Protein 1
Amino acid sequence: MKNKIRLGVNIDHVATLRNVRGENYPSPLQAAQIAEKNGADLITVHLREDRRHIQYKDVFLLKKYLKIPINLEMALTKPMINIALKLKPNFVCIVPEKRKEVTTEGGLNLNYKKDFLKESIELLQKKKIKVSLFIEPNTKSVKAASELKANNIEIHTGKFAKNYKKKLNNLEFNKIKSAAILAKTLGLGVHAGHGLTYESAKKITQIKEIVEFNIGHFIVSESVFFGIASVLKKFKKILNS
Ligand code: PXP
């Protein structure tokens, strides 16, 4: 029987919509609660250093009211590590962050601030927070994640998803597949995310090593037309059929 794939629902862009008018709606907490009731396995939020969408208070509200796990995406900085140690989410996913990017453009360079990264992973794990590293699908990054004793990797699917309809995209798919197989062999949990839609996520489900997807922009976008509940029901069905 096929393993059940977990769906992490990233609600950052509910906060984007709220912040753009400086109002207190739409509420990311309400979105997360509706997602929780309709099949989300976890809620993912990226607390960016520039606070462009999710705010400090949002993550603590989510922690207080949600029953499903929280996956906090964050940059590798001292202030962010301190927030994570205080919040104690179930999962942390360390991501690269650049001020001017529209979204997280690539995976982490695991050689950058390597000692601090190792120390941070240990600190988080001591508080029983599972740590994931957001990486590009290549051997070097997977091996480095394993050496750093991360619990999980999240494979950046951005390039694959952007070019999903193009024939040459088999190359990107194969890179993701090889990275996932190697990671699983090394004992890492394998997650995937960025830019995924119904169709591109479905294709990635062919890689059985990948057990979790984190999807945001597409879910929030579809929800404008169809509502969170119906979008999540459809997504779960697609991922697990
Ligand atoms: N996973 C990670 C680590 C991310 O940084 C993001 C974007 O915040 C996502 C998943 C979700 O990407 P998208 O919004 O394109 O679905």
Protein 2
Amino acid sequence: MVLLDGKKTSNDIKDEIKVAVTAMKERGEKVPHLAAVLVGSDGASLTYVGSKVRACEYVGFDSTLVELPDTTAEEELLNTIKGLNENEDIDGFIVQLPLPKHIDEQKVLMAVNPNKDVDGFHPENFGKMALDMESFIPATPFGILQLLERYQVETKGKHTVVIGRSHIVGRPMSILMSQKGPAGNSTVTLTHSHTKNLSEITKQADIIIVALGVPEFLKADMVKEGVVIIDVGISRVPDASKKRGYAIKGDVAFAEVSEKASFITPVPGGVGPMTIAMLLKNTLLARERNA
Ligand code: GUN
């Protein structure tokens, strides 16, 4: 079994970005500038956004964190986005999800200038991605492709089963794995809450990508020997033995599934750090495209 080490791979990618930024500075060019908008004080979102800002510092990007209270009106958030769209110093920005219930997520994502949409969530970018056009690929799917590519996991002609049809992971992943090119050319089955006999399908999978948010959902008796496992889940499960009071669990019962897997991502240290590295990569691309 080979561990798909997202921590190491993301560090490699961040170091490559750092080299590119240093070269930009030496040429007297402006360095990439990423902004993140955080509405409210969701614990996990605070952690993620904090990691994104620290990663910017590491690679030499400028970063701006816009923190807005839970009570922010939709109109106010749309105005903030308009300001970021118009601010020429900002190359790319993200609005951290989830948003408070009173705000229409779709309306917010539609308001982001597609050329600055480094999350790749705007329909223009999603449509371009699906049509093999130059776009911003959402960071988590982009990170998964990079892991598969850098570990030379064969995907061509393989049966990939994606569990979960979210707009951020499952749906784009199902499209990307079937596309021509590196980490593509796979035969994809996209499964979800209405899928019948899920185990029968997962047992036929060469590659399984699980993005459900249900801790330890995928068990050893649901997979075949030699399967490749990509675990996108990051759930906080109460655990009194931990100082912070919770443990981080993926969607895969790692101990038992890893015994049958040929490649597997750990949680933490798998897909999570890759997401941040690819957000930086998209921001670098945005800077280069804007130059
Ligand atoms: N919430 C969970 N994942 C993501 C992500 O990749 N981007 C944003 N903006 N919010 C998220």
